[in-house]
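Notebook entry, structure prediction.
Reason for the run: the old model in the group folder had no record of what sequence produced it. Starting over properly, with the input documented here first.
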Amino acid sequence: MEPFTTHTGIAAPLDRANVDTDAIIPKQFLRKIDRTGFGVHLFHELRYTDYEGTQENSDFILNQEPYRSATVLLARDNFGCGSSREHAPWAIADFGFKVIIAPSFADIFKNNCVKNGILTIVLSQEEVEELFQLTASDKGVEFTADLEEQKLTAGGKEYTFDLHPFSKECLLKGLDHIGWTSQFENQIRTYEQKLKTTTPWLT
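New structure, fully documented this time:
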């Protein structure tokens, strides 16, 4: 996982509330256990008019220019609700999104995003509405997310956001939870050796 510091990219407005993980990546595509190849199925039932995914829905935002190359996703309330499938952030990352902005996220989805190097930014309803208006008036506008400063810049205006310190550290260092734990491998090994001598009945 690559460290996240700052990112600038085109923002795609997805004007839907309560987008669940089945809408993000439908169940029929959950057969793989590696993290690649899911981007083509992202928002499958919204992007395509046929089950096989061969006919694009021209009305869907990601099938329009310049949003085919968008790396920032602007969404509405309760994004990522539904099941806990980690395939949802896998698909989002595989498509190319680095940042998601919404008034609220489902907790499990939000945590899964951190594990996959995706920054989720929570702003107020009023701020998100302002950003939707900006994308409507300036198609293809770029947003810049600065994780260290916890600031989002768009249309010449800055927005500040909160983020849990642990999530921030993991994103800045490019670590998932296993990677974060591995930082303490020496301490863990020392502790395990100590257990063998002080409490051998436990080992």
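Summary: The chain has a mean pLDDT of 92.
The old model has been moved to the deprecated folder.
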